[in-house]
């Protein structure tokens, strides 16, 4: 039956529910496709084929580290998805044996507004974050780096390493650092088991991670800046400022700055936001990653400069990866269909 929104007997669309294990299976081995979807999302957004309201932060009295964030978005192009991610970050969960982050996503038809899918969202969020960082490294570094360093040995950097190895398969050296040495040791063990030919060394302090011609990823739970300077002799490094709050404004002031979206990243006391407040302008940002991938600006203004990529984490990226998940789920007929989630169309009273 053809759907007619004006018919009193229009059929009720079903809702597809995709659990965490199903989402994980659907994205396994899909790193190249995820990178392509993330790049397409950035470029559609740069070309104004998207709608991206500001994220909404729900915070709790007397729980400054805890938050739940709503990220609504619409993405056009060949994707044509609307939806929202509702993602919680509770760092104290680790003490209870729980993951810090949890999330769900709802996808809606941009034609009718009706919900089409309900997905576990933390896996999508983690992979789009890591893919965004690796995509930036690929285009900003411009060649295979001497190695990669990862500060913060949690799931985000573990995924970031996976995507960095996708874009730089010849990288053989990695440094990892965490304030909890046992977490860094566990990261090293798992990373070497997963990545054949990769030698992972645990750094004893933060000073060891600064290496010229390396890609350096920060994915921590820091609430306030704790890195106040970079080595004077650091050259042609690409810093992935994933957690956004590790660096003092002065560090960014002396770096080349690329972001995902100016209006989004310059809020919520991120390091770029703090620098904007200090300077009273945003001229220190040279452009967006999409401008680089589209060839509108060069990857580096100066050959040996340090480039800092600060991604706020845009809801369009979640939509892009969720589109890949849902398309594969429909093709493979995976997930649970709920035919009566919505009330029958045309009911009166």
Automatic annotation (TrEMBL):
<dbReference type="InterPro" id="IPR023866">
    <property type="entry name" value="SbnB"/>
</dbReference>
<protein>
    <submittedName>
        <fullName>2,3-diaminopropionate biosynthesis protein SbnB</fullName>
    </submittedName>
</protein>
<dbReference type="Pfam" id="PF02423">
    <property type="entry name" value="OCD_Mu_crystall"/>
</dbReference>
<dbReference type="InterPro" id="IPR003462">
    <property type="entry name" value="ODC_Mu_crystall"/>
</dbReference>
<dbReference type="InterPro" id="IPR036291">
    <property type="entry name" value="NAD(P)-bd_dom_sf"/>
</dbReference>
<dbReference type="InterPro" id="IPR023401">
    <property type="entry name" value="ODC_N"/>
</dbReference>
